């Protein structure tokens, strides 16, 4: 099932109501689902490889802690923050401004022009650090089992 953006995210505690959580695709909901967003976001940084390493290790530790507590929603949110560390680092590695598309109000969304790549090796290293942790998280055996269980229990069509 798709991520449900119609929920009242300001008033739902997903630790108390995991049945309302939908995995969605990629990083969907990463900045919405509480209390996890508030727990993980303070540690999410990627400016330099050292900062990215410290951040990815801390968030991965949180991921493992959520798994230890059989808290799938927390683990999935930590996985999403790690994935977002990779994608955002990669975006800044490819585009110094962090913007992928040229700003031009005259074109429609479907015809946006992609800015040229300006590869930043520092941000690329940060991206690689997060990518390694993301792969480790998404292939974790317990995570995979809890994912399947969550989908079976709550995401049945």
From TrEMBL:
Pfam families: DUF4385 (PF14328). It comes from the Bacteria. This is DUF4385 domain-containing protein. It comes from Nostoc flagelliforme CCNUN1.
């Amino acid at each position: 099932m798709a991520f449900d953006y119609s929920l009242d995210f300001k008033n739902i505690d997903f630790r108390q109501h995991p049945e309302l959580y939908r995995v969605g695709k990629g990083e969907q909901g990463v900045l919405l689902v509480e209390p996890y967003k508030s727990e993980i976001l303070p540690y999410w940084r990627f400016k330099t490889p050292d900062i990215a390493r410290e951040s990815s290790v801390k968030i991965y530790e949180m991921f493992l802690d959520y798994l230890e507590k059989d808290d799938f929603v927390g683990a999935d949110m930590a996985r999403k923050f790690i994935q977002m560390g990779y994608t955002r680092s990669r975006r800044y590695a490819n585009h110094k401004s962090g913007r992928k598309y040229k700003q031009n109000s005259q074109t429609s969304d479907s015809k946006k022009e992609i800015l040229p790549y300006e590869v930043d090796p520092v941000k690329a290293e940060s991206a690689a650090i997060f990518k390694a942790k993301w792969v480790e998280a998404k292939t974790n055996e317990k995570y995979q089992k809890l994912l399947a269980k969550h989908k079976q229990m709550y995401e049945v069509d």
